[in-house]
Amino acid sequence: MTDSKIEEGLPPTKEGLPWQAFAIVGDPDDPETWKLPHHTKAIYRALNYKLGIEKTVDWDSMPAAVASLSPGGYRGERVQSPPEDILKAAKHLATHYFKAEKPLPDTLAVMA
Question: I need a surface site. Which of 7, 13, 14, 55 has the fewest CB within 10 A?
Fold first, then answer.
């Protein structure tokens, strides 16, 4: 469900986050197409150049985002997106792991 900010003429958000906080974004103007949130709300500061975007990665939500890309999914549910979007999301998430110098999860290692 989208936030009410759209009605006020402000940029759309989903779960209080802008489209840049999601690994899959079908249409930046349609929050219903945004999937796999993996940044904190601090992303707003990063977007305003006051904080590096890598510092806004929500490492607590990353395992769920990564699992959602795997065939088994997260809690048995794989993200519903075209294969090319799933691969793009895997590469995007893998980049965060590389930049943070964290071990790459197996799911991303085989996809990214």
Answer: 7
Give the span between the Cα atoms of 13 and 54, in whole angstroms: 20
- pLDDT, one tens digit per residue, over 1-39 is 445 444 567 889 999 999 999 999 999 999 999 999 999
Domain of residue 37, residue span = 4-111
Q: What residues does 46 pair with on adjacent strands? A: none
Which residues touch 37 (CB under 8 Å, ≥6 apart)? Answer: 14, 15, 17, 21, 22, 58, 61, 65
Q: Tell me how crowded residue 14 is: count the other CB atoms within 10 A of its CB.
A: 20
Radius of gyration of the CA atoms of the chain, in A = 14
> Global pTM?
0.85
